[in-house]
Structure formats: structure tokens, C-alpha cells
Amino acid sequence: MDIVSLIAAKANYWTYVILLMVGLYAMVAKNNLVKKIVGMVIFQTAVILFYVSIGYKKGGTLPIIMHGHDHGHGVDSFIKAADYINPLPHVLMLTAIVVGVATLGVALALAIKVYQEYGTLEEDEIRKQIELKG
Amino acid sequence: MSIETVLSIKPVLAVLVSLLAIPGIISSRSQNIREAWTFAAAGIKLLLVVSMLPIILDGKTINYTLVQVFPDVGISFRVDALGMLFALVASSLWIVTSLYSVGYMRSLDEHSQTRYFAFFAVAISATIGVAFSANLLTLYLFYEILSLATYPLVTHHQDKEARSSGRKYLLYILGGSVGLALPAMMITYHFTGTLDFAPHGVMAGHVNSGLALLLSMMFLFGFAKVGIMPMHSWLPAAMVAPTPVSALLHAVAVVKVGAFSVVRVMTGIIGTGVLADFNINGIICAIASITIVVASLIALSQDELKRRLAFSTIGQLSYIILGVALLSKSGMTGGILHIAMHAFGKITLFFCAGAIFCATGIKYISKMKGIGRRMPITMTAFLIGSLSVIGFPPCGGFISKWHLVLGTIESGRLIFLVVLLLSSFLNAAYFFPVFYNAFFCSADEVLFEDRVEEAPLWCVVPLVITASLSILLFFYPQPFLNLASLAVQTIMGI
Amino acid sequence: MKILGTITILLCGGLLIFFTSDFPDFGDPKSPASIHLSPYFIEHTLEDTAVPNIVTSVLADYRSYDTMFETTVILTAGLACFLLLRIPTKEVTRRYYLHEPTGVTLRFDGDRYPKGSNVFKRIDSNWVPYDIIINFTCRLLIHFIQIFALYVVAHGHYSPGGGFQGGVVIGASIILFAISSNLRASIKRLGEKAAAIFTATGVFIYAGTGALCMVIGEHFLNYSFLAPLLGTDRIMARSHGIFIVEIGVAVAVMAVMIWIYYNLSSAGKQDEGL
Amino acid sequence: MTFFDGDSSLISNLPAIVVTLPLFASLIAGFLGWKNRKAPYPIAAVALFLTFISSVVLMIQVMSTGVAIEYRMAGWAAPVGIVYVIDHLSALVILLITSIAFVNFIANKSNIDTVFRNKAGAFNSLYLLFTAGLLGMTATGDAFNLYVLMEIASLSGYALIGLGSNRAPLSTLNYLFLGTIGATFYLLGVGYIYIATGSLNMADIASIMPKILDSSMILFAFIICMVGLLIKMAIFPLHGWLPNAYSESANVAAGLIAPLTTKVTIYIMIRICLTLFTPQYTFDYLNTSDLMVWLAIGTIIFGSLSALAQKDYKRMLTYIIIAEVGYMVGGFFLGNRIGVSGAILHIVNDAAMTLALFMAAGIFMWKTGEESQESLKGMFAKMPFTMAGFTVAALSVVGVPPTCGFFSKWYLISGGIAAGQYFFVAALIFSSLVNAILFFRIFEIAHFEPFKDHHHHSSNHSNKGEEASAHDTHEQTIKEAPLGMLIPFMAVSILLVVLGLYSGQIVNNIINFAIPSSIL
């Protein structure tokens, strides 16, 4: 009973940790470079998920001021912070997503270069080739 | 006793003058111009040093701080009696050695002479820097520069032997300074908060007996240039260098920098009080005595002349340490004076060895039978030099040894008197075969035909000068003797 | 490696999960994150910037400096892909041509290929005939996608959206075009040079706005100093400033998406690809 | 009108200018690169020079006023908006970054021309972006902004070193993986800090810190941030990416990235520990010293021993860099004033030394076209000036006075003694000795072995006729690097000595103010 409520209360953290570990595992253990890149994306996405989840507030709605276009009619007085979810993590994650995309692009470009050089993306085969060349 | 200090940039100039000559040396188009630069720098340096002499003899010191690098520690210079004595020896002998170098290098047609003269200049700058250091940091700085600048000189021949000797040289010298002296210096700084050389040391009251002993040993062995056993074996190895290098660096600059550094540290950092209180000086004396006796015994067995001289140097250096560590007035005077006296004697011997090599290409004593008849001037100078090293009147070496002997008696440690006498006997024993071979071997053993003559004039003149100086110093030791007693007065506070 | 990986992730994961017990509960309105800084944004966005969408106002005003560098990040990525991959098209020697009247495919090596011919059509090395349905549907959709994208850019002040989202959608529409027809057709319409220059221009619009604020005002990116130029009050100037930089972001993101796609899909040859 | 008092407004906007100037220049360079291949280089050079000048002005400004400059981006005050904080520490590191970026750029013109000939625009842009990223990382007072700028520096760094030898892409990809893990860990740490405090501004977080010292969130945020940064600075055993990535890259990239990346990351670590987590938390509450110093000792010993095993000059340098990382991390976590001063001083000195060594590598490469140590045969005779500069740099790494390496090592060692970390002291001395062996091995090769196509200098006394003119022929065979490479290199070597002699002033006038007074 206690465990269930605990999990329910921390579900967001658990989810992100599991995703994070999936990504990390792929990066550490996988042999194929593209799989590693996929792992990297999962790894970054896990952190994005974590951020977004901490922005959530029970009873809050999306962070756009209601009746915002009635600006100038004294609407400010009844804006309550508790009514809206926290916008800051969303902003940060917009940035982080873009950074993730950029990293992905560069990683793929490097992977293409590696493929052009060795004709394979399997790490053990690449290592064998390097050893053969001395 | 308050010491009057004078602020002057002269010590810095004295250090820098030979460095400033380097661009001139490198850019010279001919040998003559290059050597002119060398001599000019040497002359100016000597003049600068001598111009400071009267101030020092007045009992004042000259101070100059270049830049402050740590709290209370800077790159600073101070000229006092002890430093003055050493600088005087080094700068006057540099001129003579430059003369000799010119002759030696030209007559053997050595390669890379530009490099040789350039690094020679760096080395002499560093030597003067050590002499004029006001604190341990500055001393260490110039000590290291000297180690590095002499490496290309030691390995001048660039062959296999030079390479392995060079390795050994750096291993001992740098290993000692970085591995032992540097940590010792930092520990000292940590405990005392200063590195300045004070007349009575800075350690008193900051350290216990164990730490004082540890630091003393770290300094003694860390300044490996002094060649205390077992840190001595670089010195014979370094004899692969061209003879002028051996002469100036391994009889005067490098090894004396080692001895000077140890003396400075013992008196200026550790302090005579601490040495006496914890009875560290007894241990140092014992170590020095062992080195004296063992080195002399090894010297007996060496056939290569320069190696024999090298072991002789190792023994003689320990005289200096022994004398200072006796902590008696005469002993200390003798030890400090020995820096100068031994320098003049030993440099004569090296010049002779080089002259013989120049003229005949011979390195081994056993092959020098009859050489005295062919090279009478050289071998007479050799005789004078060795008499000075043995400590026989009428040579300068007698004066320092006399003070040393007095010092052992003053301090009441008669065992060291025995050591001194034994070692003098051994000195005589290892020099005797050289004269015997040179002058008294029977006619049928003579290896030289008539055409062997004296070495070129450039080589002979310097050794005549130093030999005569050795004799002169017996009759007129005042400049050095005064400086030494002045230094001792400051240290002992009398 | 697998065992090592397993051990690592079990350890890390266990540790991470173990420490979550102290963390605020999911959706807790009283957590420090929700009470320290964010209320300021929620309560002041209208009076400070006149933008109801708080995410937009924080993104492009309160933390506009972050966003400028975020735009720079993708510029960096575009440049990086270009620098790493790009090979001059001249160096590509093997080409395939389809003889349209007969349907025969020919391979040409070196520079002996039909130039400016009506009957020969250049095709990719692993070419398959285009699916007419996909081709047609995409052509139809692309316009609507682009119009929607412009709406997303323009309406970022009032509804979810903004420069990034809109820019990505436009970029995606062009990538969709490249996929549904071929890379060369797409490059003919929007070349690599144009993409690169658009990217730089987008970032320049953003940073230039910031610098303009600095030159006529006192802080980098402080849009309220644009008021005299825009002819509005200082608060509305912020709103307009946000819109200007959002356009810059949109242009940069759009162009860089296309640029990266060109380079990645053709491995830098920009000759053939998806 | 503010137009007319441009001077004062220019000065007051310097923190923004110093970072955005390279950004603008990179846009212009990238723009013009499409039109004219030759245009980007002078633009970038001028921009780097102006950035350097602004950083000098910034430094003077900070030193003369003695207080940190706070610059509000977009006009919003601290916790709400992003602020730049230029204090003594960041001004020092900014000056370091701009000067190294400028000197390296000038010295490697020929390398840029050969390696990046077709892509001059992109290369120059990325070079400037990398500089801008590092400058921003240094100047920012916002934990998240730091992440964004870190990624700019990283991404442009990947691109710059990815275009080196044939193996460069693979090693760069590995670098990218680890760099991303490091950066993402840092981001995660910032997230934890955020949920614990609700703020992203470093000073604001620091003011909240005393209330939440025993929060496990903060503890974990600290651990994760540190792990992320330690990966990025390549501390043992997380160093795997560094040697390959740096040694396979083009000289101009290695000369920029090798001196700066690890050093700036260490600066970030110091900044995070001091400004964000507060020294009270880092040193007193957590007592991290022992663990981190042992990590540093491991790094120093590992780096030194691995360097000993290398045959390739540039690879050897990369392991030396790893060992030096240990110096700085260890020095900082000694937790006393001397140690921290030493670490900060060593950031400056080590960056300068590494720059000099990589510039030397560039010149050797230019000369011989090879990278093995064997290719340096006879260099002393062939290139006396280059070798003189190289000797100074090498001695600085070894730690011989009066070069700067000695003085920072002095602070580190005395800090170690004061903290009672004798193993750290021993490791430093050990590493100095190993460095001595490393460089004297090279000196021996360069000194004893004859130059490859030139066997004149083996001591052949026999043919005396020739030897009379030996000196003159020797002079003629000297073939130095072009002045464009040599002059910057000599300037850096001289700087190594000047930095050494003035280290007392640097510590007294800059570093002393950079360390919070709570560290004794």
C-alpha cells in the first residue's frame, strides 16, 4: 500500500531513471555506432522528460494566461501562480531539445565519416581493421 | 650586529652581463668576433664584481629585489662576504678559462663552438647568480639553470659515451634537486614562512630534531653537485666533456656551486645553532669524512688522469663541508677559504690534463712516461697545482688546510684531524705517480720522441697564470682570507 | 562490455532511484521549483511583456540570451555537418541516367555524361520509380504544412508555438518534399548556399536585434529600448521584439534543418540521396 | 541620446561584447566564406584581436574597481533573467581564452590554409563559435546558460577535431559520446538543483544553500554535476576519449582545444564549487577533499606513466594534459588558500604551456611531416630558435624555475604540505621527474641524433680541412620555421618566463580576490 503510493508519487522520477539507464546501457554496451547514437538520444530525452515532469503542478493548466488578450482591463489582479504549471522547465527543455538535435546531427555526420573510412559501423570490426593496419 | 645594506642593481648586472653577450655570440660571423664577445663579457663581469668588493670588505651588503613571487619571497640578490668570495673566484677564473677554451677548441677543431660558448656564458651567469642569491628560492633557480646549461657542455661530443654520461649527470643532479632539495625547500618554507638567508639560520624554534636532521640530509644529498657519496658518481662520468668544461665547471663552477649551496643552507637556513643543538653537524662531518677517505682511495686506482682528478675533487669538496660543519671559527674559515684555494689548484691540474691531451692525445697516466721532459712548463704547473691540492707550502692550498686543521683542534674532534692528515697523505700518494712517470722514469721507458712539444700558447698561458696565482695566494691570501673571516664573523656572530 | 554496462546502469539506476525518496512528489504545487521563481514569470508576464504565452515570454525575453545561443547551437551543428561531410560535387564521378523514351538506365563514369539533354534524366543509384500517390499527396500537403507553420510562428504569443516549432515545421515540409521527389529537385528550389545564408541570417536577426538594443539602450537584448524605433510603448516594444527574434529563430531553424538534411542524406555529396 | 556617450556605454556593455563579438564575426565570416575564400581569415583574426583587447579592458576594469561586474542580459535582474558576472577569476580566464585563441589562430595560418582550404568560411566560423562558447561559459552566472554555451563549445570542438587524420572521426565520435554524457549529467545536476531551490542563478542558489545543506537532492546534484564535469575534463579513469581525440586532430584545432577545453572545464568546476555550492558546502559539509585528491593522485600517476609509454609526440602531450588535470583538481580540493591559488594559477600556466607545446608540435609537423619523436632528430642544430622555445616550454612542464610551471607547482606543493596531503606532494614530485625524463628523451634525440638528410654533425674530427669552416656550414644549414609561426611561438615561450616571474603579482592582485575569504 505504502509502496504503491510511493511509486505513484515518484513515478516521474522512476520513469526518467529507467529511460536514462536504457540510453546509458546502449551507449556503453552496444557494438553498433548508430545504436550508440540512438542510446545517446534516449539518454538526453530522459533528462528532458525529467525536466518537463518537474514543471507539472496538480490543478495547473498550460502556461498561457487566460483572457490574456483582454490586456489592460485589470486582468493582472486575478492571475494566480497556482493556476498555471511552471513554464520555466519547458523553456529550458526547448533549448535542450535543440541541443539534442544538434548533437544528433553532428554525431550522425561523424558516423557517416566513420563508415566512409572503414565501411562498417560495428565497433569490433573497426577495431580489427585498426589493429591490422598496425 | 646590524649589517648595513646598500641598494644597487650591480649584482643583477653582474649576473646578466654574460647572458647579454649571448646574442652577440650567436650572431657572430667569425670565431674572432665571437671570442671577443666572450672576453668582453668576462672582463665586464670581473670589473663589476671587483667594484663591489670594497663595499663588502667594509662590512656592508648589497641588496636588490628583482620581483616578488611568493609572500615574503622574491627573486632577490644579496652580495655578502661569502657570496663575494665565490663570485670573485668564479669570475676571475672565467677569463682564464675563456682564454684556455679558445686555445683548446681551436687546436682540436671542435664542432659547434658557438653552442659551446653560448652555454658557457649561461653557466657562468648561473654561477654568479648562485653566489649572489639572497634567498633559497633564487639560489635554487640559478642552481637549476646551471644544471641545464651544463648539459650541452657535458655532452658536447654528442657520441654514445657523452649520451650515457649526460643521462647520468642529469639523473643525479636533477633527481637530487627536484626529488630532495625542492621538497626540503618547500617544507622549510611551510614551517618557517621565509626562505631568506639569515646570518643565524631561520629554522631555530620552528623545527624539532628529527625534522632538522631530515631537512639537513635532504639538502646535503639534494644538492648533488657537491658530490657527497653516494651522490658522487656523476662527476667522474661528466669527465667526457671537453677539458675546459671539466676545468671550469667541474673544478670550479658546478661542484663549487654545490658546496656553496650546502654551506649557504647550513649557515643561512638551518643555522649553526640548530646544527649544534641537535648535533647534526657531527653527522655531516662523519659523512664528509667518509667521502674524503673513500674518494681518495678510489682516486689511487684510476689510470685516466681526468678521472683521478675527478675523484680528487670529490674528496676536496668534502673538506669544505667538513670545515663548515665543524662549526669552529678556524674550521669554518678554512672550509670557506678552501672554495677559493682548491679552485685555483684544481683548475691548474685540469688545464694541464687538457694541455697534455691537446699536445699528445693521451689520457692515461701510465702512458705519460717521460712527458715532463717534453712539456716542462705544463708539468711544472701540474706540480704546483697538486702541491696546492695536497696542502703543501708554498701554495694556497696550505692556508686553507692549515685553518681546517686548526678548526678540528678548536672543536675538539680530533678524529677529523686524523682524517685530514690521512687524506693529505693519500692525496700525495695519488699525485706522486704522475710526477714520477713524467720526470723520473728511466730513459728506456720514455714513450715520447722529440717532436712532442708544449701545447699551443693559448693553452699554456692560462695554466701558467693559475699556477702562479696558486703560489701568489700563499703569500698574499688577504682578499680571500678577509672575505672568509668576514663571512665567518657574520655567521658566528663574533 | 555487456556485463560492465549492466553493472554500471544497475548501480547508477539504483542510486538515482534510491535518492528520489526525498524528492518532491509528482505535481506537488508546493515544491521549491514551483514557488521560488516561476510565480514571478506567471504573474508578471503580462505587465512586463504583454505576452500571454508565458513560455514564449520567458524563452524570448526573460531568458532570451539562452535562446540566442540555442539558435547558435544549431548554426554550429549546421556548420559542423558541413565542415565534416561536404565533398565538392565535382569529385563525384559516377552518374546514372534514365533514357526516358525507352526506360533504359545508363551508367556514366567520369565527366562523359549527357549535358542538357531532353531525353536523358538523371536518377539516383538506387532509384526506384516514384509512387504517384505519395508524390501527389505530399505535394498537396506541403502547402498546408507551410501555412500552418507560419501560423505557429506568428501566433506564438497567444498559443503554443513560436519560432522553433514553426521553423522546424517549415524545414520538415521541405524535407518531405525532398523525400517524396528527390534531393536534386529540392536543392534546385532551395540550394545549400541559400540554406547556409538563411541560417546565418536567422541568427543575425536575433543577435543583431540584441546588439541594436545595446547600441541604443543599455543592455543586450533589452527590447524595451526599441520602443522609439517601433513607435510603441516600452512594454509593447518587448512584445514586438519577441516577435522579431522569433522570426529570426524560425528562419535559422528552418534553414539549418534543411542544410543538415542535405548533408546527411547524401553523405556530403549533395548529388543524390533520399 | 545615448549614441553620443558611446564610450562609457561601450565599456559598460563589455561583458556582452566580449562574448557576442566572436559570434557576430563568425556569422560574417560564414557569410563571406561563400563569396570569397580568403575573406574569413582576416575577419576572424581582427575579431579575435578585438575580443582580446576587450578582455584586457575588462580585466583592468575589474582590477581597478575591485568589485565584480554584473551585466543583466535583456535587462532582467538576477534570479529572473540571465546575468553575466565578471569577477577576478572569470576576467582572468577570459583573458586567457582570448589570448590563446588569438595567438594560436595567428600562428597556424598555414595549417588552416592547407587543411581547411575549401571550407574556410565554416572553419573560421566554428573557431570563433568555439571561442564564444568558452567565453560565455566563463562569464555566465546562470547554471543553465552555462550548459547551452558548453554545448556550443563542445559541438564546434567536435567539428574542429573531427577533420584531422583518417582516424579522427572515430575518436571524435567517442569524444562526442562521452562529452554528451558529461554535459547531460551536468544538465541533470542543474535539474536537481532546480527542484531543490527553484532557481538557476548561481548567486541566488548560493544564498539558498545554507538552508538546505542536508538535502539529499543537493548532495546528489553535487555528485552528478561533478561526475559530468570530471568526464569533460578527462580525469582518470574517465579520460579515455582525450588522447585519441586530441592527437588525431589538425594542429590548429589541437592548439586551440587542448590548452583550453580541460582548463575551462576545471574553471567551471571551481566556479560551481565556490559560487554555486559555496565553499562551506564543498569543503566543510561534504568533506570531499580526500576522495578528490586521491582521484587527482591517480590521474597524475596514470597520466605520467602513460605519457612515458608513448612514441608519438602529440600523444605524449595528451597524457601530460591528463596528468596536469590531476594537478589542478587535486590543488583545488586541497581546500586551503594556497592550494586553490595554485590550482587557479596552474590553469593559466598550464594553458600557456600546452599552447606552446602544441605550437611546437605544429612547427615540427611543418618541418618533418611526421609525428613520432624519432622525427625530431637533429632539431637543435636545424632549428635553434624553435628548440629554444620548446626547451623553455618543456622546462616549464617539468617545473624548472624561472618558468611559470615551477611557481604554480610550488603553490600546489605547499598547499599539499599545509593540508597534510603528502601523497599528493609525492605524486607531484614524481610527475615532475617523469616529465623530466620525457622531455630529456626528446632533447637527447634532437641533440644527439643527426638530422635525417644531413649527416654532418657526427663528430668527424678526421677531415680537418673541412672542419675549419664547420661553423659556417653549420650556420647555413639552419632552416627555421616561417616567421609567421616562429614569432608567436617565441612570444609564448617568453611569456612562460614572464608569467613565472610575475606569478607573485598575479596571485596577489588577481587570484587573491578570486578566492572567497572563507577559504583560509
Description:
- The complex is a heterotetramer of chains A (134), B (494), C (274) and D (520).
- With 134 residues, chain A is an all-alpha fold.
- Chain A has a single domain, classed as Orthogonal Bundle (Helix Hairpins), CATH 1.10.287.
- Chain A is 69% helix and 0% strand.
- Chain B has one domain.
- A 3-stranded mixed beta sheet of chain B has the order 1-2-3.
- The longest helix of chain B has 33 residues.
- In chain C, strands 2-1-3 form a 3-stranded antiparallel beta sheet, with no helix packed on it.
- The two termini of chain C are 35 Å apart.
- The mean pLDDT of chain C is 86.
- Chain D is mainly α and 520 residues long.
- In chain D, 76% of the residues lie in helices and 2% in strands.
- In chain D, helix 6 packs parallel to helix 12.
- At the C-D interface, helix 2, helix 3, helix 5 and helix 9 of C face helix 2, helix 6, helix 7, helix 8 and helix 10 of D.
Entry keywords:
heterotetramer, B: mainly alpha, three-stranded mixed beta sheet, 19 helices, D: mainly alpha, 2 strands, 76% helix, disordered N terminus
Question: What is the strand and helix layout of this fold?
Answer:
The complex is a heterotetramer of chains A (134), B (494), C (274) and D (520).
Chain A: H1 2-29, H2 33-54, H3 88-118, H4 123-133
Helix pairs in contact in A: 1-2, 2-3
Chain B: E1 5-7, H1 10-27, H2 31-57, E2 61-70, E3 73-79, H3 81-108, H4 113-131, H5 136-154, H6 160-192, H7 209-222, H8 234-237, H9 243-270, H10 272-277, H11 280-300, H12 305-326, H13 329-360, H14 371-374, H15 376-390, H16 396-411, H17 414-440, H18 457-475, H19 478-492
Parallel strand pairs in B: 1-2
Antiparallel strand pairs in B: 2-3
Helix pairs in contact in B: 1-2, 1-4, 2-3, 3-4, 3-9, 3-13, 3-18, 3-19, 4-5, 4-9, 5-6, 5-9, 6-7, 7-9, 9-12, 9-13, 11-12, 11-17, 12-13, 12-17, 13-15, 13-16, 13-18, 13-19, 15-17, 15-18, 16-17, 16-18
Chain C: H1 2-19, H2 32-35, H3 38-49, H4 54-62, H5 64-85, E1 95-99, E2 104-108, E3 120-123, H6 132-154, H7 163-180, H8 183-189, H9 192-216, H10 227-230, H11 234-265
Antiparallel strand pairs in C: 1-2, 1-3
Helix pairs in contact in C: 3-4, 4-5, 4-11, 5-9, 5-11, 6-7, 7-8, 7-11, 9-11
